[in-house]
Amino acid sequence: MTSQRQRVARRFSHIVSAVVVALAVVLMASVAPAAEVVDRIVAQVGDEIITEYELEQAAIPYLAQLGQTPEVLEDPAQRDEVLREVLDEEIDTMLIRQEADEQGVEVAESQIDEWVSMTAQQQGMTKEQFQQLIAQHGIDYEGEYREIIRNQLLRMQLMQQQARGGAVSESAVEEAYREQFGEPDGMQDEIEVRHILVIPEQTEGGEEAAVQQIEQLRERIVSDGEDFAALADEYSQGPGAGDGGHIGTVTRGTLAESFENAAFDQTVGEVSEPIVTEFGVHLIEVLDRQRIEDPEVEQRKEQVRAQLQEEQMQQQMESYIETLRTRAFVDVRY
Asked: 44 - beta bridge partners?
């Protein structure tokens, strides 16, 4: 569950994602079955309390952001684990709100309007259409939805005030760039690649069977000298299946990361061992490799720098919340 908490915490470093998630949150809440009202206090933060009923309601958006449904709470063991995680999150949110009040940090209505407009645009809607979508699901746009947005923006605004925002060193940028894209020398690898993809059946042992099939195909190519392209046309279930498995000439950042990492690690003419990705099981062959100019190297460096700064700010915010916890009165009774 610790990894789940980390995934939820990362949403605060992506404000647009948080705004989009907010709609999913209220949609799920609108269809969730009514919970039994429980008045038991599970935590006190300063002068404010959190009840068990409020905790259960907060678990709905928490689970939604993890791609899970409230049915998880029906299992006693999972319920206890989830609610403890949600309680930690609720305490953090309450501490942030209290600190924002103390510092006079506010979110203007115009800021909410701006983010709603941006979110609507990203969804290919006008602001009016977006509001209609919310209303169609019985959600109070002026109250419930805007309050969710306000809370997210408030947290981000306070985070930006508290983060020290130290400069990221050039060596850290180059190291991170090297891990993602290769040497930051203004050049990049370009490979011509083809593959055979077998999609496992969604049954027990399906992936194992797919791996065995790929191993057999590899044996036919490497040991028996059969033609890769002909076998791709016959057996592949992925892109390029009708063209000898040919994907084309690509640079890093073009393909899915799991496939791309395997392909770029190969030498020309090498037929890979079975490569398992989220798409299935692959047999990969790199036909050609060249070093070409990379016109986007500086842009990528700035992206990497922004990513490192964001991670640094998030770490600082987590440390700041821990400081608020030690400074404030927090009584957990769950």
From this structure: 49, 331
Residue identified by tokens 């404000």 is 15
Q: Specify whether 140 is located in the same domain as 206.
A: no
* pLDDT tens, residue by residue, 72-82: 888 888 888 99
In a shared domain, residues 201 and 121: no
**pLDDT tens-digit readout, 105-131:** 889 999 999 988 888 888 788 888 888
**Whether 159 contacts 57, CB under 8 Å:** no
For 310, counting Cβ atoms within 10 Å of its Cβ (0-12 exposed, 13-18 middle, 19+ buried), the class is: middle
User: Do 84 and 54 fall into the same domain?
Assistant: yes
DSSP letter string, 81-125 = HHHHHHHHHHHHHHHHHHHHHHHT----HHHHHHHHHHHHHHTT-
* Interior/surface letters 277-295, b for 16+ CB within 10 angstroms, e for the rest: bebbbbbbbbeebeeeebe
Instruction: Give the span between the Cα atoms of 3 and 314, in whole angstroms.
Output: 16
